[in-house]
Amino acid sequence: MVFPAHPAQSAGLSLAAVLAATLLAAPAFAQAPASPAGETAAPRFSFAPVEGGALKLDRETGRVSLCAKRGAGFTCEAVPDSRDAYETEIARLQAENETLRRAAQLPPIPPLPPTPGPNADTSDMDRALDYAERFYKRLRGLIDEFRAPNGQEKL
Question: Furthest-apart CA pair in the chain: how many Å?
Answer without folding.
Answer: 90
